[in-house]
Design a protein that fits this description.
This protein is an alpha/beta fold. The protein folds into two domains: 159 residues, Rossmann fold, CATH 3.40.50; 95 residues, Orthogonal Bundle (ProC C-terminal domain-like fold). Strands 3-2-1-4-5-6-7-8 form an eight-stranded mixed sheet, sandwiched between helices. The chain starts with 13 loop residues before the first strand and ends with a helix. GO terms for molecular function: pyrroline-5-carboxylate reductase activity. It is found in: Cytoplasm.
């Protein structure tokens, strides 16, 4: 590990390979939080819409990926999983271990990333779509030559768009099934709650507002308090009341089992895709 140099936390430059929505969310969060000024962030894109999106933050938009790598200390690969191999392989000649590499591509394992890059100073990161509003659930795992300091730096970066956990890579398929796919399950639940409100006589706009705020509030209580979610449920479910009547209907329909099965099915699919 002699070639691995600590990244200067007060002066490093951050580069994005890929200028999509996820990269934009991370860049916006990093700048907004004050972790890095926009002047130390760069990416490359030929499309005017994406260039404008990054330039509006103050990010430098270069002409090609090679320029981004050469002018960055930390490089985040934020491209679609099916093109990661080609992108990393093309840049391999300039991916020295002086640079910390990060991948947010779902289902792409560290051993493959390290092989394509020709170096092991890689960190795999799995954020999710609420990164767009600064509420991501992100999990990171370190490659064979990434240091503890590297992990702390990346945790700080992704902490700008939500909460961060560290986990062994063998758990990443399960992470995909839960936090990666989970927002879609919650969107369905919000839509169903709103539909229930409409069926009970509420105007659509009011029903959707109440449903989304109710989910947000309930999640905040679980996240911000030490109580188990089951305790919160018990607090609301008065004997013979409205809430326990609703819970009874959910249990008759296998509500909890359905959600558990959804997570397991998505995790299984993630495992299948990562083996292709």
């Amino acid at each position: 590990m002699a070639n691995v140099c600590p990244i200067p936390t007060d002066s490093y430059k951050l580069g994005f390979i890929g200028a999509g929505k996820m990269a934009e969310s991370i860049a916006r969060g990093v700048v907004k939080s004050g972790i890095l000024p926009a002047s130390r962030i760069r990416t490359a894109h030929s499309g005017s819409a994406r260039r404008t999106a990054f330039e509006s933050i103050g990010v430098t938009v270069l002409d090609n990926n090679s320029q981004v790598v050469e002018d960055s200390d930390v490089i985040i690969f934020s491209v679609k999983p099916q093109v990661v191999k080609n992108v990393v392989s093309e840049l391999k000649p300039i991916l020295s271990e002086k640079k910390l590499l990060v991948s947010v591509a779902a289902g792409i394992k560290l051993k493959d990333l390290q092989e394509w890059a020709g170096q092991g100073r890689f960190i795999r990161v799995m954020p999710n779509t609420p990164s767009a509003v600064g509420e991501a659930a992100t999990v990171i795992t370190l490659g064979e030559k990434a240091t503890t300091e590297d992990g702390e730096l990346i945790s700080q970066l992704f902490g700008a768009i939500g909460k961060v956990w560290k986990a062994d890579e063998k758990l990443f398929d399960a992470v995909t099934g839960l936090s990666g796919s989970g927002p879609a399950y919650v969107f369905l639940a919000i839509e169903a709650l709103a539909d229930g409100g409409v069926a009970a006589g509420l105007p659509r706009e009011l029903a959707l507002g109440l449903a989304s705020q109710t989910v947000l509030g309930a999640a905040s209580m679980v996240s911000g308090m030490s109580k188990h979610p089951g305790q919160h449920k018990d607090d609301v479910a008065s004997p013979g009341g409205t809430t326990i009547a609703g819970i009874h209907e959910l249990e008759k329909s296998g509500f909890r089992g359905i959600l558990m099965n959804a997570v397991v099915a998505a995790a299984k699919r993630s495992k299948e895709l990562s083996q292709n």
